[in-house]
Amino acid sequence: GGGGVAPAGRRARGAAGRGAAPAGVLVKMRKPQQQSRADPPVVGPRTIEGVAAAGLRGIAIEAGATLVLDRADVVRAADALGLFVVGIDAAS
After folding, report:
1. Which of 14, 49, 52, 60 has the smallest number of Cβ neighbours within 10 A?
2. Is 8 or 58 the better-scoring residue by pLDDT?
3. Which CATH number belongs to the domain containing residue 63 in this structure?
């Protein structure tokens, strides 16, 4: 793993300033040379909570390469928090 949402969220909050409107997107993709089957990028309900706490607007995930844990819970949490989750084609 790359350290998760929390460290990035602290940096984003500090850069945006207190009380700033939500902005920014977390992007989860494979790193160059990363074996997708052995160590895929992962998104779960805690990721959604971290994105909201970081003041981001949503998550873009690499379609077909990102493991989504508890998909229904991820969708419910994102909807409840007003966040988006979108799949992107890394080859495009």
Report:
1. 14
2. 58
3. 3.40.140.80
